[in-house]
Amino acid sequence: MDSSTLPSCTLSSRTDTEMALGSEVGRRGTPSPPQLPPQALLERLKDFGQEDAFALWDELLPEQREILVKDIESLDLPRIDRIIRCSLGSQGAYLPAVEPVPESSVSSVEQRTPEQRERWWKRGLKAISEGKLAVVLLSGGQGTRLGSSDPKGCFNIGLPSRKSLFQLQAERILRVQRLAAQSNDAGFTPPIQWYIMTSPFTDEATRSFFESHKYFGLEVDQVTFFQQGTLPCISSDGRFIMETSYKVSKAPDGNGGLYSALKSSKLLEDMAMKGVKYVDCYGVDNALVRVADPTFLGYFIDKGVASAAKVVRKAYPQEKVGVFVQRGRGGPLMVMEYSEMDASLTTEINQSTGRLRYCWSNVCLHMFTLDFLNQVANGLEKDSIYHLAEKKIPSIHGYTVGLKLEQFVFDAFPYAPSMALFEVLREEEFAPVKNANGASYDTPDSARLMLLRLHSRWVVAAGGFITHSVPLYLTGVEISPLCSYAGENLEAVCRGRTFHAPCEISF
């Protein structure tokens, strides 16, 4: 019997009167018969070797038993079993031979001309003005490593404006909308649809944050929240880890859960209905992210590929970043994690350029066609191979070492019939916020300084002046995204004016 056919009252069908009578009988010394686990559900667990989930059944209170049954019934056991078997079975599997990314697949900064950039910018703005671009934000993580239990996007990195990462990104969307409208003869552009993927751990707090800040000036109906899935945490032999005696320990299924979440929530259909053709996808913890970048979109359309990614050059051979490689000669592009790469590959030099052969870092800034997302939503799930991350998992016995099952956005790239890489400068577009201040890299302090220095350069380029009472390398000015998206149109605001750092320049 399928678990879906089990009556919902399995554990709660006794009336209050019956429970009272049962208690009275117990007081008279006649024990009531022990309640057994639902046999059909127990048999299903046995089929997949997970019957230990009911190991402490006899010790549970009635309400705890009900919670446990509902928890198990909510799991797609055949799918989870397939994922566990395939993922454990792939451990230690032979890694494919890789080649450096062909130069023809990369648009490097030094190759691009001002004319190309201008053409791509205008082409991107035109597509945006026609409502063809949607933006997807990967925002399922909490700021635990930053010392916060809030969603990462709520984090304030200490800018003069005190704006959160969410607000910076929302205002960049607003600015692009205005630029697109100005480029359109009609003077109007449909709102850019912003789809925000949360997790069960960040969903409520993210929604509340947006509501309390009035969506940062965006229209309520242009922002859509949806949740990524979760999967049970497992031991090294594939058994469920129990968080409590009546609850399976679960974790988000990685940012690659995007594809199945878009499918299950029917948001791919929603995008199609709204006329979307292209989808910009990025991670929340980048203070310099250019959301809905018209130049990147114009390049993407110009190349006619199914997917694309922004990349930065590796800072040094041992930098702990995944890099793009070609899977075999003539094969698809894919991301290889630094932990998977042979150490000798990380230091190989291209003799003609003097640079690293494997140099293109993945920084989670992607562009897809909607058609490709539809294909991936089915294809990636069929693969069923997830990355296994060894973590400390909350369990009945305290924190125990176990495995989380995750897929990543870049797992889809080998499926792409065509792909291109677009180099950007680290100091202009990549300021990750991953570690608490005091760490040696990727902190709120380092991200804040990168943004202030970039914006200070914009001010000087626009004819402005900056004064400061502390060394300039420790400070700078902040320009509101509502004033300028990428340094454009600042002459009227800055020329001939002096700004004392730190400060915010806004309307």
Short description:
Pathway: Nucleotide-sugar biosynthesis; UDP-N-acetyl-alpha-D-glucosamine biosynthesis; UDP-N-acetyl-alpha-D-glucosamine from N-acetyl-alpha-D-glucosamine 1-phosphate: step 1/1. The chain is of the alpha/beta class. 31% of the residues lie in helices and 21% in strands.
Topology:
Blueprint (H helix, E strand, L loop, with lengths): L15 H12 L11 H9 L14 H12 L3 H13 L8 E2 L6 E2 L6 H16 L3 E6 L26 H19 L9 E6 L4 H10 L10 E5 L2 E3 L9 E3 L2 E2 L1 E3 L5 H7 L2 H7 L4 E6 L10 H10 L3 E7 L9 E5 L5 E4 L6 H4 L2 E2 L4 E2 L3 E10 H14 L3 E9 L2 E9 L12 E5 L2 H4 L14 H18 L3 E4 L8 E3 L11 H4 L3 E4 L1 E3 L2
Parallel strand pairs: 2-19, 3-4, 3-10, 4-5, 11-19, 20-22, 21-23
Antiparallel strand pairs: 1-12, 6-9, 7-8, 10-16, 11-16, 12-13, 14-15, 17-18
